[in-house]
């Protein structure tokens, strides 16, 4: 009931007062790092990219703003009536004299809602058989065309292209660029996967470099998981780091720990293997033609020797031999005869020798002949006149 | 088998893709190792095989990663940003 004092009270302009309130609020640590739970209403998404909404519960409402940079990282598809937990700080919008929550993170209501949602979706998709190992298709050993779905500007793309260039530069790469985080990422990823399939790649790499679990959240989106399952080409997922598992990893035909590893798994046959293969083929070619020529040569030389065996030359030689044999036999027969003849001559000659009157003379006999008529005196009655007496070493004359 | 594979490949070797050349080369190697073909045919196969192997090696040595980008239903060459 007391009258306000005109002089002792503090007088401020609206701006000054508003500034003062703002300072009070912004200096309160509780108000600068707070989770607020409520239901979304009056959701507005103007072209600026900022998001405006009101969080309500039964008895109160709170104006909220989410600036464009934070909104782009949003993984939840906001809708009026949705129960959420928003994290942010209280600020004052001075022109309207309103305090508001500047939201930087939103998750569906509930403790560990993100993880709960992950588990729920995982269980559901699993029960549909989307993660079954029988569903997984083999990765071609030597792909000709590799499709890539990833951010056009990320390090993941560079890593993958470098890996492919090093391992299998023969391959053709078709890139379907897509944002990999933010509220638009899931649909863009689905679209990229579908468009890429029209290019009939042998295998698709779905990849993203490392980031927070929120950054990777698009790869837990049910639509993206189903697009991976529906892809006609087998999909290799390389998302985040070794320790990150997304639902796309479970749905993929092959899970790689990183984008680089995905590119490696897509090129099981490297250019080095191909060079070895060509070398091996060349060696086999040489060996087989060498063997073939060897066989042919062996056949030719075998025929040559058989031909020599049946050649007339051989018969001629054999005839010669026969002739030689005959001639040798002829010679030996002749020789025998000659020897035989010559021993006969010896005998005859000896016998002749014994008949030689000279031989008798040497034993003291004499041959007496008449000098006039040469008659040999063999009886006394024949002896008359002058006679020659022949002895072994000459003759002399006698007279009767 | 050897006959048909040589007949199919009337295409000059320079125009064959790596895969085509490799497939034909494999066929020739198998044919030479397998059935007995007339020597003259074998020599011709061998020479073609050697030329195919040389062609494959040359393609491998000169291979450059070709990167294209999807823009709607079209594919266009993709230039990587240089660092």
Describe this structure in words.
The complex is a heterodimer of chains A (400) and B (83). By secondary structure, chain A is of the alpha/beta class. Among the domains of chain A are: 14-110, Beta Barrel (OB fold (Dihydrolipoamide Acetyltransferase, E2P)); 133-269, Rossmann fold; 357-399, no CATH class. Chain A contains twelve helices and 13 strands. In chain A, the strands form three sheets. A five-stranded mixed β-barrel of chain A has the order 1-2-3-5-4. In chain A, a hairpin with a 6-residue loop joins strand 1 and strand 2. In chain A, helix 5 (155-167) packs parallel to helix 9 and helix 6 (185-198) packs parallel to helix 7. Chain A is rod-shaped and about 240 Å long. The mean pLDDT of chain A is 89. Chain B is an alpha+beta fold and 83 residues long. Chain B has one domain. Helix content of chain B is 57%, strand content 12%. The longest helix of chain B has 24 residues, at 39-62. The A-B interface holds A 144, 152-153, 158, 161, 164-165, 169-177, 192, 195-196, 198-199, 271, 274-275, 277-278, 281-282, 284-285, 288-289, 292-293, 296 and B 18-19, 22, 25-26, 28-29, 32-33, 36, 39, 42-43, 46, 49-50, 53, 56-57, 59-60, 63-70, 72-73, 75, 78, 80-81. Strand 7 of chain A pairs parallel with strand 1 of chain B.
């Amino acid at each position: 009931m007391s009258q306000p004092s005109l002089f002792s009270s503090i007088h401020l302009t609206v701006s000054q007062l508003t500034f003062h309130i703002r300072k009070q609020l912004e200096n309160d640590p509780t108000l600068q790092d707070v989770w607020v739970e409520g239901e979304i209403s009056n959701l507005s998404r103007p072209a600026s990219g900022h998001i405006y909404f009101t969080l309500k519960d039964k008895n109160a409402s709170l104006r909220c703003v989410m600036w464009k940079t934070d909104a782009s990282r949003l993984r939840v598809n906001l809708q009026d009536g949705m129960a959420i937990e928003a994290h942010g700080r209280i600020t004052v919008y001075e022109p309207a004299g309103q305090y508001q929550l500047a939201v930087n993170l939103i998750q569906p209501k509930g403790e560990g809602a993100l993880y709960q949602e992950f588990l729920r979706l995982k269980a559901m998709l699993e029960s549909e058989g989307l993660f079954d190992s029988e569903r997984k298709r083999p990765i071609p050993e030597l792909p000709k065309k590799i499709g890539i779905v990833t951010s056009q500007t990320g390090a993941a793309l560079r890593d993958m292209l470098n890996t492919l260039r090093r391992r299998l530069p023969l391959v053709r790469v078709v890139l379907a660029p897509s944002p990999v985080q933010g509220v638009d990422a899931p649909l863009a990823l689905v679209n990229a996967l579908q468009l890429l399939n029209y290019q009939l790649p042998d295998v698709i790499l779905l990849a993203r470099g490392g980031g927070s679990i929120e950054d990777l959240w698009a790869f837990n989106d049910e639509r993206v998981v189903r697009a991976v399952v529906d892809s006609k080409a087998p999909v290799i997922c390389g998302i985040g780091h070794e320790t990150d598992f997304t639902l796309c990893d479970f749905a993929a035909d092959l899970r790689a720990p990183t984008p680089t590893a995905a590119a490696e798994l897509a090129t099981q046959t490297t250019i080095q293997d191909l060079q070895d293969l060509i070398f091996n083929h060349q060696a086999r070619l040489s060996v087989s033609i060498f063997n073939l020529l060897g066989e042919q040569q062996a056949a030719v030389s075998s025929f040559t020797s058989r031909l020599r065996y049946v050649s007339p030359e051989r018969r001629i030689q054999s005839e010669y031999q026969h002739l030689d044999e005959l001639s040798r036999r002829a010679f030996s027969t002749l020789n025998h005869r000659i020897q035989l003849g010559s021993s006969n001559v010896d005998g005859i000659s000896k016998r002749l020798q014994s008949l030689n009157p000279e031989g008798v003379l040497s034993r003291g006999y004499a041959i007496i002949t008449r000098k006039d008529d040469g008659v040999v005196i063999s009886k006394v009655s024949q002896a008359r006149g002058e006679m020659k007496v022949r002895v072994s070493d000459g003759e002399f004359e006698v007279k009767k | 088998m050897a006959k048909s594979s040589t007949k199919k490949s009337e295409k000059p070797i320079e125009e064959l893709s790596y895969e085509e050349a490799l497939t034909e080369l494999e066929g020739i190697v198998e044919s030479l190792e397998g059935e007995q073909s007339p020597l003259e045919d074998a020599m011709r196969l061998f020479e073609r095989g050697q030329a195919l192997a040389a062609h494959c090696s040359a393609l491998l040595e000169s291979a450059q990663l070709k990167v294209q980008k999807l823009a709607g239903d079209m594919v266009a060459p993709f230039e990587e940003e240089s660092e």
